[in-house]
Amino acid sequence: MKTFASATLLNGPWDLTLSEDGRHTRVFVANALSGTVTRLDLRVTENSENDGDKQDEKETDRDVVLEKATQIASGYGHRCDPAAFVVGPTGVALDEEKDSLYVSSTVDNAIFAISNAGDRTSDAGLGHVVVQDQAHLHGPLGLVLAANGDLISTQSDAINPDLKQLSEIVEFTPAGKFVAEFQVDPNAGSAFGLALRSHGDGFVFAAVDDTTAVLDIWVVP
Fold this sequence. Notes:
Layout: E1 13-20, E2 24-31, E3 36-50, E4 58-73, E5 79-81, E6 85-87, E7 89-95, E8 100-105, E9 110-114, E10 128-131, E11 140-145, E12 151-155, E13 168-172, E14 178-183, E15 191-199, E16 202-209, E17 214-220
Antiparallel strand pairs: 1-2, 2-3, 3-4, 5-6, 7-8, 8-9, 9-10, 11-12, 12-13, 13-14, 15-16, 16-17
């Protein structure tokens, strides 16, 4: 196990995403206590040793080295909250083709994009707004990127609540246009983390129901 710590660059890590190419990994971390996003540039090293009894086999020890940590975004609203414990930048989703990192900012009730996220050496501030929809955003939390480029976000109900739209998962185009939504649970604050991955010609989608402590999974062939 490897541990990385920093009082300034890892301050209340709330969510993360990553990209990797085998030897190098970039980890993007949203910090809820400082309203920032940090990129960790990691390198995987391998040390192979021959087994004395089995010369044809090798035992490989892997180590992860932190090459650099860079704050690539800042200025997102953040605070402790009596209803939601803490609110700040939460979900992060990376579009590797565009090298854009999308950030759900709960307090700002918006989703932002950071350009040149993988190579950036400076702080981009908030980036630029991608989704700002008072009708369908209610404190965005978890965030994933669909295969078609759409953004899918869970709503915390801690910001801009709507009693008719509680615990919603909402889908937007990359241009910020509303596509669809559905409810995880009739109770407020139930929608939390979510995950999405390809599965054959379809996909597997998972969402946490924080009220019932259940993970809902949908498999679409």
